[in-house]
Amino acid sequence: MITVISIIVIIAIVAILFVNLSPEFGANPSKEKVLQYEKLDYFKDGKFSNLIPTNMDMDFTEAIKMLPEFFKNDPTRRPDFELPIERRDSLELVNEDHPTRLVWFGHSSFLLQIDGKTILIDPMFGDVPAPNPLLGKKRYSKELPIEVEKLPQIDMIIMSHDHYDHLDYGSIQKLKDKTKSFYMPLGMGAHFEDWGVDASQIHELGWWDEIQADGLLLALTPARHFSGRGLNNRFSTLWGSWVIQGNSDNIFFSGDSGYGPHFKQIGEKYGPFDFAMMECGQYNYRWTDIHMIPEETAQAAQDIGAKTFMPIHWAAFTLAMHSWTDPVERVIAKSNEINQPVYIPEIGEFIELDKNLQTRRKWWLEPSVLSKQMISKQ
């Protein structure tokens, strides 16, 4: 009994030290900033809140029931083949003479080049979306379209919220010295300052705030989600979606969000959009308030007035119990049903907005299935 108690105490001490000393957890907003947030309609009792009632509760019994399902060894939850990745060269990314284009890194990470600016959106380039590699499952692909070190000078980084699958400490450490400015929801600046980013480079916005950023219009728009990196700071920072308007192209990035009326409101105020990246993955019936199911993703794209959209928040990590291809298969079916154009690019492919965006092939299928499809067409 003494041995068991000693082991429990040691584990508890190690956990406390890890949470308090590891830089991965970032920092909380200052008391002065919290006082400023108190003036907002969506901040109360020290916490940010969603615009409509959002269920964040899961009782103990439900959580216990979910554990065996979550840790079940289900081979459909990640690809059993190496995903096709288009490699990008650093030289082709410094050429400014091109129309608006994006490169998808999988999940919700993008490089966007618009009006001569190079932008990173939610640059999570780490292998595991967790504060420690032992606490999460690795990325599907062994490599990225381009190594972080080979990326060109970054004009701005745009963040949607502070969860580990979107905000990665290691990635920011590699990017901070080659990035001119950072744009993010309220409160997130505390993380970046704690990680060595100068406060003068950080721009925090609340919902519906707009800012002129190096010739672009950026607007932080609502999302239905939550935040937090530690054990006791849930809702301490804001979360959101983004509108990015250039000289000729209007782009929407959903961040993470459950379905709600905010999508139509965003479309009415800032739409229609030439291109939209819409959350579609890591969902479950237990948390539908904070993550859309694929059918809702297609509808949300229509709500905002997207000329074309692509599903994101999939194809990199397993954070839910559905098969890894379920998001793309279901969102395509629903998009076809409601006549909403959808585009599924390969990871690393140039997404060029001046072209007719059409999915080239069903790359998410196993090679054997692809071969059968090709034979059947011959």
From TrEMBL:
Superkingdom of source: Bacteria
MF terms (GO), sorted A to Z: N-acylphosphatidylethanolamine-specific phospholipase D activity; zinc ion binding
Entries under SUPFAM superfamilies matching the protein: Metallo-hydrolase/oxidoreductase
Domain Metallo-beta-lactamase: 118-314
One GO term describing the cellular component: cytoplasm
InterPro entries xref list: Metallo-B-lactamas, NAPE-PLD, RibonucZ/Hydroxyglut_hydro
Name assigned to this protein: L-ascorbate metabolism protein UlaG (Beta-lactamase superfamily)
